Amino acid sequence: MRWPIRNQILLPFVATGVLTVGAIAVTTSWIAVRNVEAGIRTQLAHVVAALEGASFPLTPNVLTQLRALSGAHFVLLDSSRRRVATTLGDLPQGDNLVSDDQWLRLDHTVVGEEGPFDIAGVNYFAGRVRWVDSRGGGHVLVLYPHADWRAARWQAMSPPLLIGGALLLVTVTASIVLSRRFGRRIQRMQTQVARIAAGNFQPIAASPIDDELRDLSLAVNRMATALAESMQRIRETERSTLLTQLVGGLAHQLRNAITGARISVQLHQRRCAAADDDALDVALKQLRLTEEQIKALLRVTRGETRSPVSGDVSEILQQTVALVRPICEHHRITLESDDAAADWAIDDADAMRAALLNLMMNAVEAAGPRGLIRVRTNVERHGLRITIADNGRGFPENVDIFQSFFTTKPEGVGLGLSLARQAVDDCGGTLTAHRDDGMTVFEIALVRHGKEDHLLLLDSIDTASAQELSIGSR
Predict the structure, then answer these.
(1) What is the dihedral of CA 48, 54, 58, 61, to 10 degrees?
(2) CATH of range 230-306; options 1.25.40, 1.10.357, 1.10.287, 3.40.50
């Protein structure tokens, strides 16, 4: 049987409160009643003692005063048990107030073990006192009304019981309110976990009360964030796997086509009289480079590894500029390159060539017809900086342009900049992007030694040009 946690909190708490408050109220009431009873007994005992040693006449006025002081009634009897005076009011003459049996059981103790006596139809606690005067004396009956006894007991008992009942009501109400409050907070946690299980990883607002449930809600939010990131990585992995399979098949077909095109151009170059045609040389270089890149791509899709080949950055940059320049001339794009001699060797020439070619082709697409592209190389104290800038419209704000599968091109896949950054990282450098004076600038920073030199390089770069923006997209 289901036992909600609200009831698990409420029932034991209420039961404990009821038992505690009830025990206190009953104990307090019992003590109060005992004190009242003891007070009445003591008061009547003092009255009895005063009557036994009285040397004054017991007139009706005296009995009335005793009645006001003690709360008891008095009946004055002569030696023949005839009524002489009483505070009970008018009673029929000749009626014996007590029977012979009751008379024998009466003693000086008014409230004792003996139960109340029925006198003239009213229950009294009764006691008998011997009284002596100049005429021979008689007896005094001390009668305490049983109704007054019960009223005094209830009067002593009611305040503790009423207070205990009020405290009990407050305890039960507070328990219900608290249990519902905790129940609602736990229900919120349950709803959030159910939403996470359904694939909704939106966080919930943390409780303003700093307690264990707030810590639990924060932990659930962290779990939701971690799950969302894991699901994103899984989706990217699945897309990468599918893309690898598609690229593998497409690259195989492209390699065959490019190989055939290269062979055809070579045959044409041999047969053509204009053997020094620079356009054919550029085309052959572009075809060979594309063929090598496709072969490398096929090796990646097959899970094969290759040994990196070192090379000089200046030579790689000049080759890449030479490949891109005909495309710029075709689109009437101004390509400015300083062709500086960097004398800078890197371990993986193919990776750097692929990164530079990707950045320059992006610049060509961004600049558009009659646009401007600037390629600069700066050799500094501890490193080398290569900048590729274009006067295109730039990239959107608040977006990481280097994340995988992000692109603003309708036909794009979103892997170019991500692979370019990875290639630069493999060469021991960093790739950043920013806007400067209406130009979109991609900057490659290479260091000669270790991390400290890399930090010195970054410190030497102008703040405005070195600000990395992990936003936007090409």
Answers:
(1) -80
(2) 1.10.287
